[in-house]
Structures are given as structure tokens and as C-alpha cells.
Model the fold of this input.
Amino acid sequence: MTGFRKGLFATIVAIAFQLTQADAATSSFDGAWNVRITSSNQACGNGATVAIGINNGQIVSSSAAVTASGRVAEAGSINVTLSSGIKRAVGFGRLSGTSGSGTWRGALCTGTWTAERM
Done:
């Protein structure tokens, strides 16, 4: 390897290592959360409560009935996908301390959500 390539390779490795370390850091939002999902459209149902977990900023399922995935940024912005069978909804919003709120959309329905840390 030439000196330039060695230097470039070392820089890339150093950046990748730092990104990996940042991803492994504990998020201030880690823990168990209850998420209340509502819709103003009666045809979409009258709401549900889903338990999710956040681990190192990654959203994980806390229920066998619902698959949750997504990410919470350190500043609290959140994007999440919830799936149950063939139903799927995508949500966006913000967490702050022990609560949060946002909007969601599915194939035929939309609504809002609120969250509380358990």
C-alpha cells in the first residue's frame, strides 16, 4: 500500500470505530414505554396501547403480538414501524424525558400517538 492509501485506510477504520462506539452508547430514552395509538377515523378502530422497549436508541418489540423497530435520536426525535400480521404503521415524533407524542400513518388510516415511560 502506498502512504496515501495506508493513511486513508487508517482514517476510515478510525471513523468506523467511532461510529460503532457511538451506536453502542446508552440512550437517555432506554427502557420500557407504553404507546397509546389513536385515530380520528372510526373505521380504523378506537385505539390501542402497545408496549415497546428502547435499547441503545434502538426500538424493539416488547409484545409478541406487535413487531416494533426503529430508532430514537439522542435529541429525542423518533421514527418507528409497528407491524402486526399484514398491518403496518409508521410513526414519527419526539420523546422528552418520560413522555412523547407524534403522528402515525398506515395503508388506510392515520392518527396520533402518545408515549409514557413505564
The chain has a mean pLDDT of 82. The longest strand covers residues 87-96. The first helix runs from residue 3 to 24.
